[in-house]
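Subject: sequence -> structure tokens, single chain

Hey, anyone have a minute? Need the predicted structure for the following. Not urgent.
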Amino acid sequence: MLLGAMDDSQHSTVMSGGNAAFVESLYEAYLSDPQSVDAEWRTYFDELRGGARDTPHTPVQQAFLEIGRRRAPVVVQASGGVNAAQQAAGALITAYRVYGHISANTNPLKWRGLPVVPELTPEYYGLTSADLNERVQDGHFKGTLGEVIDQLRRTYCGAIGFEYNYLPSREREWFQERVERNKGRGAFTGPERQRIMAKLNAAEGLETYLHKRYVGQKRFSLEGSEAFIPLMDRLIQRGGELGVKETVIGMAHRGRLNVLVNIFGKKPADLFAEFEGKKVLSDDPDIAGDVKYHMGFSSDVRTPGGPMHLALAFNPSHLEIVSPVVHGSVRARQDRRGDTERRQVLPITVHGDAAVSGQGVVMETLNLSRLRGFTTGGAVRIVINNQIGFTISDPRDTRSSRYCTDVAKIANAPVLHVNGDDPEAVVFAGDLALEYRQTFGKDVFIDLISYRRHGHNEGDDPTMTQPIMYREIKDHTTTRALYAAQLEREGVLPAGEGDAMVSRFRDRLDAGDTVVEEMENLEQSKLAADWRAYKNTHWTEDAPTGVSEETLTQLGAKLASVPEGFKLHRVIERVLKTRGDMASGNTPLDWGMGEMLAYATLLVEGYHVRLVGQDSGRGTFVHRHAVLHDQAAQDPMNEEYMALGHLAPEQGRVEVIDSTLSEEAVMAYEYGYSTSEPLALVAWEAQFGDFANGAQAVIDQFISAGENKWQRLSGLTLLLPHGYEGAGPEHSSARLERYLQLCAQGNMQVVVPSSAAQIFHLLRRQVVRPYRKPLIVMTPKSLLRNKLAASPLSELTHGSFRDVIGDDTVTGARRVIISSGKLHWELFEARNEAGLDNVALIRLEQLYPFPADALRAELAQHPSAQVVWAQEEPRNQGAWLMIQDDLRGVLADGQTLTVASRPRSASTAVGYMHRHVQEQKALIQAALGAREPQAAQEAVTTAIKNAQAQS
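Reply:
Had a minute. Here:
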């Protein structure tokens, strides 16, 4: 039976006039067979039922509709042989399924109390004490109405609050059956309960040990949330039974050290050495290391289903940013295993209560969960809910929703709110969550409601801001002590065994060896990707990237063709015809063809390609056309064609993905993917280079510093459209200077390629060379179709990417201009037009690592020349500030250095086309020496002032 979930106005609209009889007949048909009514009515009735399981019965339905129409207490009248108690039971069961979580006993602290939900009381339905003695039965609930209400309270208002009624019907019924069959908490055998106790004892034991031995040192204690450790243990062991082979975990500081020791099997002795400053990651001065609660770890453990590889992701202090990194890593591992059902690799992400609702990257990551290019088959997401965000504990200041987990609803993910002081309920929530994820391939949340015994860290005093909450915490018995007493009372443990376990665990910590019995090994895992070939290599490693003309021609022909009957857009039809001419060598290759051939050749050599961006299929500037769409298609499932996926029978994997409008989560996801797949070219493409700003935390904390801090290799490539074409401040600069500022100790590569051949060799070099560093590419916009940047097919058949490209047309030049990207070709045209045969143009294609030897050799051909660095960006931006010392260091005797650029500016670029044109003209004139070098900067400034005066 049901309780109406619609408000008065909705019911009156549906039931107005003569519609009532019609609706009632529809509802009767729906109860017999939901598919017999159309989709809109089916959705309406689904929502109205709230997950209840009804059978067709007109009098019952009539009573339900009467209840739903009225908000005031209703005296349910017996009708058609159905007594009032039976009708009320149905309404109450629905109410408990929908609203029970609000009144559930999920909070181990009592200082706030529980809200009252009128719909959960018999009085709401006008029932009397006599009605409570009537016998009723509905599914797993039977007895007197009073007994059924008691059963409902124990099931839906016990230690777990279940939110699942917004799920699709099949998932809702799945949850409902398991919750009600198990009375809301499940049952465990003696050995299972003893294991829960052992893990709980280990969780508290480690924290107590560290608190006494390392007084006042930060460790971000798990105390108050110790049930998290038996929960994690259960997920791993049960996961093995359900076919999981790898588990990747992402979590912030809280409880991290406990997870390392009690789940991953890290030796306590190693942890103690870190506390005492005796153990560092490396003595290498180029390795910075990180604090111990940021460090990752991996190990193999035994499970009932076989060995499982565990990986704990490294992470910085940026809240929640590790979540998309974990998902990217999981996707790579699934792809490597061929796990298309995404059941063998499990992501577990651990969140904080204030952060999960406060950090936008959580929403961005959840939005990826069902998308084709990003799904990982769902994650188990655990919120360690201390009920206090740093020093805030009032929900009025932390969120606008009832629960911190309400963000889960955007992914249609169920939420299990569970009392952290009830470890068996916590473990049962883990069982439900894991089985749901493995069955439906969707995210699920466990809201572990607990408390924080100390402050944000062990040096913080929370009583300054939370005196009421911490008065209760001070006197609150620990979860371990509560559970030990329960098990001893019930005879599961002998009397006094709880205290004996504490002593034995302390002895094991003193011994310093691993405390996890299921450890498989402590050496290099055979289940993990092998990165050894990429360690201790240098950026100067020789890596020829040329490909035979025969192979290029064959692949080019495939890139220019589509299946028979596939109708192309008329513009793309011309593009593919031109590509056919390029493949045959009749026409120079444009940028798009050079790039596509790079991907194609890598794929047929067995490497993998994953290109992700907000318009990567066709390219933001309509140059790539990697994914084509059938203009005559009728079936949306079969209207796409990607030639890169049909090159050879044994080719590598390829994905070209139009991503959601997210920078931070998607870039973090691709970083995670790149750290788990060394044999793939993984590229994230910005719609405009400027938009990477939205992912600055990923660039700062992971891409630029991940290897230096954590020895974590990544070959992630960022493709950032960059170039001044008068498009305004947000569509000109990829902030080149920011990447160069982050460059040190050989951590990244920053390049500005200037031709189709260069992008071909560059992308191939990124994978073929045994060297894995992030690659930042300033890609062009107008240059994509500039004929000067086109390359003959022959330039792809030999050599590799050239860090520096000299000027073979001039020797002994009076003036040498060094530039990058499209500015080189503008200088080239201006020089030739002016007939300046004593000006040499050098292209600096790689800005970092700085190719000093190659540039020095080119400059040596022009002794005593005036050397000019020319850039489009303002002088306080672009490369000049970061590379001027490097440029001076390669000058030959007698050479001097100056700069031609836009003047300093707070904005990256002007917003008016005519001002841009004047600036660019003045910049080029200054670089070419139309005025004396010392007047170059003044010339640009004067031109800008003139333009401003005109506007």
